[in-house]
Design goal:
Elements (H helix, E strand, L loop, with lengths): L2 H4 L13 H15 L4 E3 L7 H4 L2 H17 L3 E3 L9 H10 L2 E8 L2 E9 L11 E4 L2 E4 L3 H9 L10 H15 L2 H16 L3 H10 L2 H9 L1 E2 L6 H14 L14 E3 L1 H10 L3 H7 L7 H9 L7 H14 L4 E7 L15 E4 L5 H18 L3 H9 L9 E7 L3 E3 L2 E3 L2 E6 L16 E6 L3 H4 L8 E4 L21 E6 L4 E6 H4 L12 E3 L1 H10 L10 E3 L2 H6 L2 H16 L3 E9 L5 E10 L17 E8 L4 E2 L3 E11 L1 H5 L3 H17 L5 E6 L1 E2 L7 E2 L11 E5 L15 H9 L2 E5 L6 E3 L2 H4 L5 H4 L10 E14 L4 E7 L11
Parallel strand pairs: 1-2, 7-8, 25-26, 26-29, 27-28, 29-30
Antiparallel strand pairs: 3-4, 4-5, 5-6, 8-11, 9-10, 9-11, 12-13, 13-17, 14-15, 14-21, 15-16, 17-18, 19-20, 21-22, 23-31, 23-33, 24-30, 25-32, 32-33
Helix pairs in contact: 2-4, 4-5, 4-12, 7-8, 7-10, 8-10, 9-11, 13-14, 15-16
Length: 800
């Protein structure tokens, strides 16, 4: 270049290893900065293959970059090497670009052959041209053209770069060369796993080359398989190191939709600009809301749909579950518990109907990546700028046909550390599980008028319920199952389900409700010939089978390998011979700050009229001494008198207070369950509307049927643990429980000072300020006290 021209040239060096989205976004920023009329010369597109391992992503890059350059009226040159890209990639580039031509070097001469020239035409335009003395001379004679093209190789469709690497890894496995195998394993780990440092180390330790090739053969599309998939596969690989010890595990039969497919879906449907806008702080939520709607409406490329068909042919008519497996999900520090969707597919009907249902399930999972809760979760944890692609895990549902229904005998969640023990004799390191009959949805969600069985694995028969009269009320009354004739997820009353033949003994899971039978007998209400009332208690399962030991050993093994507490989801089935079989469907690090060292509990002379005092447990959060400044109380009698719309307005008001009160220095008190989706059971807040609270307290209000739920192990539990929020359940009718709401409500209501627009709800929501309020808790004694220090403070607010 001349000095004058060189002075006008700017060279931009970008690192493709940061990933497709980061690289493309950085380049588009440079393109925007250069503005209209610039000239661009790019390095070869083929150079992107070693960084992204996929022609699919290379064509996505071109399809979003070329039109942007066209809009800015630029002139841009891209090159790519012949026979290194699939025909599909070339076709996508041909469709997108305005000009496409082949360059050939034959016998030391150079030829240019236009194959597409948009909106222009001449009689010799599409002839090959020889470059002679700086001029292009068309080769028009048939003899010269035939002689030229006879020397040009015409190869078959080259394989995708992804397939090249996988085939090389398979050859390395067969070759027996340890060096080649280790190099291939390293490449496949980058291509498929790409986990953060700690998960990456686990993958390096436990995933063999054969394991990784097994993943690659089950992947649809290309790219990383995501955190949920990695957690499940690594956990199974850990347990596989002791096959005789864990021989009761069911095999898994999973497929994976690579994260590159998520980008392809966005690009193909023309939404990339919205995706780019969503990555900016100004449009993080607004463009996210637009994408949330759009992602549920798009179409998949036909080659991908064909792979979907082949996968569904593999599963036949077995029910499947389509689960989120984003890049950030289930890693150390961020569980994303319940933030993204999973969809059951009963998988019945014609192949076309099953394909349509599956595609819709994938759309729902994709759309959940832009849900308000997911966006707020990422923002609150400093992940708004992180690359968050949505991969998908497709699993065969564990269970069997029982009449027209499909479900496992039982399912649950388990934690290797019982962080919130409810009895001083319980060993917190032994772990706990939350068990339900049927699908595990009722174990991970706070369900309507239903309670899972909480099991401390070192004392599996010990209950957190002190009063046997509560057993029937605080148990499972309904089960979730797949209904095959209706192709849908259904909720069935346990009384109805227990009449079915499930191929094993129902007494493993249900027992006579002796307390209810006794009361009915005393009241003379027992009818001759009627079946005794029963309760889901899992007593026989816990007393007479090895299941508690199996779960405890499995959790301990995984926790030791992770060097960290773990949280798992599992199903439980019994064979015809009565042998239990566990299916591990998910494993992730359990985010926790631990129980903490014991703290001195306040002596009576330091406590003036405790607001709350619990002497028999009913709290979660370890040993604390937590100063608080505000208590926000939803008045039960006022809330009960409200209609549905006003109750939801209360929930939104709590969300506003969550933003203005000091982080971790306020307590929320409300009737029934916080975070329920059913406003008749409590306050329907989203967790993002209470995530800054230091303490969450649920109180009983019998007049409205409001009851707390100690939801150990649920998604709500995970949110509490991750945010470090302490939880109190006040069953004020029980011995050892003291609650004095007047000590809150007699103080001035600060609500309107904090949220001036909340006037219509001031009778229902009371905000009290305290100068010396402290919460103490002690695990060993199972005591929690919320009280002011010293002689108390004046009722008049001193907060100027």
């Amino acid at each position: 270049l001349s000095e004058e021209l060189a002075a006008r040239v700017t060279v931009h060096e970008l690192n493709a290893n940061i990933g497709f989205e980061g690289f493309t976004t950085a380049l588009h920023q440079q393109i925007a900065h250069a503005g209209v009329g610039a000239y661009w010369v790019f390095d070869s597109l083929t150079d992107l293959q070693p960084a992204w391992y996929s022609d699919l992503i290379v064509q996505n890059f071109f399809r979003v970059t070329c039109p942007y350059l066209y809009e800015l009226d630029t002139v841009a040159y891209f090159a790519m090497l012949r026979n290194r890209h699939t025909f599909a990639t070339i076709a996508a580039i041909r469709e997108t670009t305005q000009v496409l031509f082949d360059l050939h070097r034959v016998d030391d001469e150079h030829y240019i052959h236009p194959v597409k020239v948009f909106d222009r035409y001449s009689p010799t335009m599409y002839f090959p041209h020889r470059i002679t003395n700086g001029e292009a001379v068309a080769i028009t004679s048939s003899e010269a053209s035939a002689r030229l093209f006879a020397k040009l190789a015409h190869n078959l469709n080259p394989p995708d770069y992804w397939r090249v690497v996988v085939d090389q890894a398979n050859d390395a496995l067969l070759s027996g060369s340890s060096d080649a195998q280790e190099e291939s394993r390293r490449l496949l780990l980058r291509m498929l796993v790409g986990a953060d440092e700690r998960m990456g180390e686990l993958c390096k330790t436990y995933l063999t080359l054969a394991d990784l090739l097994g993943i690659a053969t089950r992947e649809i599309g290309t790219g990383l398989v995501g955190g949920k998939t990695v957690g499940m596969l690594v956990a199974r690989a850990i347990l596989a190191t002791e096959p005789e010890r864990f021989d009761y595990l069911e095999a898994h039969d999973s497929f994976y939709l690579g994260a590159d497919l998520f980008y392809t879906y966005i690009v193909n449907n023309g939404w990339w600009r919205i995706r780019t806008a969503q990555r900016t702080p100004e449009q993080y939520f607004t463009a996210g809301a637009e994408l949330h709607e759009l992602l549920g409406t798009g179409r998949f490329p036909e080659p991908v749909r064909e792979q979907f068909r082949q996968m569904l042919e593999h599963f036949g008519q077995s029910p499947i579950i389509v689960r989120s497996s984003s890049l950030l999900e289930d890693n150390y520090g961020n569980a994303f518990a319940g933030k993204y969707d999973s969809m059951f597919c009963a998988n019945q009907g014609t192949p076309e109907e099953r394909l349509a249902a599956f595609e819709n399930a994938v759309r729902v999972v994709y759309a959940s990546s832009m849900s308000p809760d997911a966006l707020a979760y990422r923002r609150d944890r400093g992940l708004a700028d992180s690359d968050e692609q949505m991969a998908v895990l497709v699993q065969r549902v564990s269970g069997d046909h029982h009449g027209t229904l499909f479900f496992p005998h039982a399912a649950g969640v388990g934690n290797s550390s019982n962080l919130y023990v409810y009895d001083p004799s319980i060993d917190s390191t032994a772990g706990m599980v939350r068990l339900v009959v049927g699908l595990g949805t009722r174990a991970v969600d706070r369900t309507v008028q239903d309670y899972a069985r909480i099991v401390a694995l070192d004392k599996p028969t010990r209950r957190w319920l002190a009063d046997p009269a509560d057993l029937g009320r605080f148990s499972q009354h309904n089960a979730d199952v797949l209904c095959l004739p209706t192709n849908s997820l259904r909720t069935i009353p346990m009384a109805e389900l227990a009449e079915m033949d499930i191929g094993t003994d129902w007494s493993l899971f249900i027992s006579p409700d002796h307390e209810t039978i006794r009361r009915l007998r005393e009241l003379g209400a027992r009818r001759p010939g009627t079946r005794n009332p029963r309760v889901v208690d899992f007593d026989t399962l816990l007393c007479r089978t090895p299941v508690p030991t199996m779960l405890r050993e499995m959790l301990a093994c995984l926790s030791a390998a992770y060097d960290y507490p773990v949280d798992v989801e599992f199903t439980l089935n019994f064979t015809a011979a009565g042998q239990p079989r566990l299916n591990l469907v998910q494993c992730r690090p359990l985010q926790t700050r631990g129980l903490g060292p014991a703290v001195p509990m306040p002596t009576p002379d330091r406590v003036h009229n405790p607001v709350i005092q619990l002497n028999n447990g009913g709290f979660m959060g370890g040993n604390v001494r937590l100063p608080l400044e505000f208590v926000v109380m939803v008045r039960p009698e006022a809330y009960l008198a409200m209609g549905s719309q006003d109750r939801h307005a209360v929930a939104r008001l709590i969300g506003e207070l969550n933003q203005v009160l000091p982080d971790g220095r306020f307590m929320l008190v409300g009737p029934g369950r916080w975070g329920t989706s059913t406003q008749s059971l409590g306050i329907p807040v989203r967790f993002t509307e209470v995530n800054h609270a230091g303490v969450l307290c649920e109180i009983t209000y019998s007049a409205g049927g409001f009851l707390p739920e100690l939801s150990y192990g649920s998604h709500f539990f995970q949110d509490l643990v991750e945010s470090g929020c302490f939880y109190l359940a006040v069953f004020d009718e029980r011995p050892g429980v003291e609650f004095n709401p007047s000590l809150i409500l007699d103080r001035p209501n600060e609500l309107l000072d904090l949220v001036p627009t909340a006037g219509s709800l001031a009778d229902a929501v009371h905000v009290a300020w305290f100068e010396h309020l402290v919460l103490w808790s002690d695990i060993d004694s199972q005591r929690a006290v919320l009280a002011e220090l010293g002689p108390g403070t004046p009722a008049q607010s001193a907060r100027a």
